Amino acid sequence: MAVAAVSWPASLANSLVNSVPASRTTDQAVARVCTDVVVRSLVVSDAQPVAIDYRVCKSAQGWHAYDLNIAGSWLIQTYKQDFNEKIGQSGIDGLIAFLTKFTEASAGQSATP
């Protein structure tokens, strides 16, 4: 199965901080220049079919996926909950340190064959 490349918009970070209703983003700058759509798909393989929904935005640069729903959980909402928990434990500096460490570790893993 071919997978299309996904370009993540700069508004993703803002969306993580703000509440994101199912129908549209609350990022007003994006709402003015973006057509927001939910794309529903069903991945069928030898195992059980899996429903996957994508929130996509059409801007002047093309379509960009910015959220993903698997098994009823939107990725942005999950990250928002996790980030709020981390902020509650160690403040915003603790969240930034955690994300920096996670990003560095992920970059190191993808560099190895």
Summarize the entry for a quick read.
The protein has helices at 11-17, 28-33, 75-111; strands at residues 35-43, 50-59, 62-70, 73-74.
Textual characterization of the structure:
- The chain is of the alpha+beta class and 113 residues long.
- It is built from three helices and four strands; from the N terminus they run ααββββα.
- Strands 1-2-3-4 form a four-stranded antiparallel β-sheet.
- Helix 1 crosses helix 3 (75-111).
- The longest helix is centred in the last third of the chain and has 37 residues, at 75-111.
- It is extended.
- The two termini are 21 Å apart.
Could you outline the blueprint of secondary structure elements for this entry?
Blueprint: H1 11-17, H2 28-33, E1 35-43, E2 50-59, E3 62-70, E4 73-74, H3 75-111
Antiparallel strand pairs: 1-2, 2-3, 3-4
Which class of secondary structure composition applies to the elements? alpha+beta
Uncertain stretches: 1-32
Q: Average pLDDT value?
A: 73
- What share of residues is helical? 40-55%
Jot down its keywords.
44% helix; 113 residues; disordered N terminus; 4 strands; 27% strand; extended; alpha+beta
